[in-house]
Automatic annotation (TrEMBL):
It comes from the Bacteria. It is a multi-pass membrane protein. The chain crosses the membrane at residues 7-40, 52-71, 83-102, 108-129, 141-164, 176-200, 212-235, 247-264. The keyword Membrane applies. InterPro entries: TM_pro_TauE-like (IPR002781). This is Probable membrane transporter protein. PANTHER family: MEMBRANE TRANSPORTER PROTEIN HI_0806-RELATED. It holds the Pfam family TauE. It comes from Simonsiella muelleri ATCC 29453. Signal peptide: none annotated. Keywords: Cell membrane, Membrane, Transmembrane, Transmembrane helix.
Length: 268
């Protein structure tokens, strides 16, 4: 039975994750993963797979969050479905591969590389450094390769891919509002692939908490998804009221915070 403290924490974190998903085209994993880890600790769950449970649960919640966000963006005609068409199969393959391999691979080097990458992108956005006007999206083969990388990295760190796909698209001179909307649709495909991978890889693991499906903790999925689905459209609405520079600034701040959070966890 969850205490009042836990319920309040779930409601607030779900609302924040949903709002950020709608605002910036991300999946909300940077909020969801820590809250799931905190909840498992509060419930006395001791397992070598707590991080895997947090990641799998995060992807399950993101399915509902990003679907709500993507629908709101679609209604505002802010999704480039051509980009989605080419990137989606690639991020699904990358997400399945990454999540299936997650329990076998040491993640420290990957996390260090990822943190450095996030800091560089955050600095670029915060300093308003603009790409060359002639730079464009790569051809379909190039998009497929980029999609694979986004899918693998997203599955390993429990994010919906927005922190990678939005900077990539803006680097290729895709307008920021279109990039965040397109990212929301891509994040849904990453979430589906990540969920499938974490359910499969945790299916035969013994000693997991009750009410889990593979590495997915179902009670938290239900509780948080309700909140994220409600608040994601609000984030989309606010996003379209901001200027491109302000939206890039918000994205830069989020990337900086994600990277700093990862450094804190590595040093703890």
């Amino acid at each position: 039975m969850w205490t009042t403290e836990i319920m309040i924490a779930l409601i607030l974190s779900g609302a924040l994750a949903g709002f950020l998903a709608g605002l910036l085209g991300v999946g909300g994993g940077t909020i969801i993963v820590p809250i799931v880890l905190w909840l498992l600790h509060k419930q006395g769950v001791v397992s070598e797979y707590t991080q895997h449970i947090a990641l799998g649960t995060s992807f399950a919640i993101m399915i509902f969050t990003t679907l709500s966000s993507a629908w709101a963006q679609h209604r505002k005609k802010s999704i480039n479905w051509q980009i989605v068409k080419y990137l989606s199969p690639a991020v699904i393959i990358g997400g399945l591969l990454g999540s299936a391999l997650s329990k076998y691979l040491p993640a420290l080097f990957l996390k260090i590389f990822f943190v450095i990458f996030l800091y560089l992108i955050a600095i670029q956005m915060l300093l308003k450094l603009k790409p060359k006007p002639t730079r464009q999206l790569p051809q379909p083969a190039g998009l497929f390769g980029i999609g694979n990388v986004i899918g693998v990295l997203s599955s390993w760190v429990g994010i919906g891919g927005g922190s990678l796909s939005v900077p990539f698209m803006t680097y290729c001179n895709v307008p920021i509002h279109l990039a965040t909307g397109t990212s929301a649709a891509l994040a849904w495909t990453i979430s589906v692939a990540g969920l499938m991978g974490y359910v499969y890889s945790g299916w035969h693991i013994q000693g997991l908490p009750e009410h889990t499906l593979g590495f997915v903790y179902l009670p938290v999925v239900v509780a948080l998804s309700v909140c994220t689905v409600i608040f994601a459209p609000l984030g989309v609405k606010v996003s379209h009221q901001l200027s491109p520079d302000k939206l890039k600034m918000a994205m830069g701040i989020l990337l900086f915070l994600i990277a700093t959070q990862m450094v804190w966890k590595m040093l703890a």
